[in-house]
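All the exercises in this workshop are built on plain-text protein records. Instead of coordinates, the fold is spelled out as a row of discrete tokens. Once this layout is familiar, the rest of the handout is easier to follow. The record below serves as our worked example for the rest of this section.
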Amino acid sequence: MAHIEIYTTPTCPYCIAAKSLLTRKGAAFQEISVAGDPAGRRAMSDRAGGRTTVPQIFINGKHIGGCDDLYALDDVGQLDPLLAAGASA
């Protein structure tokens, strides 16, 4: 099973939509809230190639992007294989 990390804030509608899609897919994920956490947001941004918006999503350590990117992968049939792939050691 894939290791999924999603950086979020509590009231972000895009975060809610991304988590909803992952939940519908039956994918467990680690949610990392960066609300009120400037250091956490900087760490997220560094990891996400400078992106500062939430959500930022990583699957098996690979940066997927935000909510729109996640839905785009699903639209072209590429999300399910990512979710099915195990985390590489």
